[in-house]
Design a protein that fits this description.
By secondary structure, the chain is an alpha/beta fold. It is 54% helix and 12% strand. The structure holds thymidine-5'-phosphate.
Length: 218
């Protein structure tokens, strides 16, 4: 139906354990069924170099670097992701579904840290690395951090390399970043859709499909 029309860039955002990756996969399956070519990707780690950066960013001691260093590395990952994967896919007319994008840096490195970083630095990095480009739609999966962190720790128990650097920051950090996300969504209601993620997978998937079909007239 929509195959061949201009690709859309949809991002999934939320705290730990909000179900973004599962919901992204389910939306991708739906789009594929509709004949819409799409790419599933994530930040950090959507490219080969990005995977190396991911290891540095999400494993190890939480205090091994500060929020400014983190922001620079997340933006390096983002720039590579855009130039090697996101922009080429959109240019081919495919849709791109990304598990996290620039809103994550504002939520984690700015709001999470109780504003210990200058917000202008993030705006400047955005301008340099991303320019005027932005997501066509951002789906924020909102969940109390107590629930999300529990899910996330359970998932990590089966991993050989534990990606728990940010999980280990404690509830205040995660509560701050949740509130930050909600503020960002309020400031840009035309781009964000906020969904309560404290429900079962199939129900949430139906809500997301409804949002996407209505938004893009599928
Ligand atoms: P994930 O667990 O959703 O794959 O994300 C990896 C971790 O990186 C997660 O704890 C959130 C964090 N993160 C940031 O702190 N800033 C960012 O800009 C991005 C993209 C992720």
């Amino acid at each position: 139906m929509m195959a061949g029309t201009k690709g859309k860039f949809i991002t999934f955002e939320g705290g730990e354990g909000s179900g973004k990756s599962t919901q992204l996969r389910l939306l991708s399956d739906y789009l594929t069924k509709m004949g819409i070519g799409n790419v599933q990707t994530k930040e950090p780690g959507g490219t080969d170099v990005g995977l190396e950066l991911r290891r540095v960013l999400v494993t190890g001691d939480k205090d091994k670097m500060d929020a400014v260093a983190e922001a620079l590395l997340y933006y390096a990952d983002r720039r590579i992701h855009l130039t090697q994967k996101i922009w080429p896919a959109l240019a081919r007319g495919e849709w791109v579904l990304s598990d996290r994008f620039a809103d994550s840096t504002v939520a984690y490195q700015y709001y999470g840290y109780e504003h210990k970083i200058d917000r202008r630095l993030l705006d400047d990095l955005y301008a340099v690395a991303v320019g005027d480009f932005k997501p066509d739609l951002t789906i924020l999966l909102d969940l109390p951090p107590e629930i999300g962190l529990k899910r996330s720790l359970k998932k990590a128990s089966g991993m050989s390399v534990k990606e728990l650097r940010h999980e280990s920051r404690g509830l205040v950090f995660h509560d701050n970043l949740r509130k930050g996300y909600l503020k960002m969504a309020k400031a840009e209601p035309e781009r964000f859709v906020v969904l309560n993620a404290d429900k079962n997978m199939a129900e949430l998937n139906e809500e997301i499909i409804k949002v996407v079909t209505e938004r893009f007239g599928l």
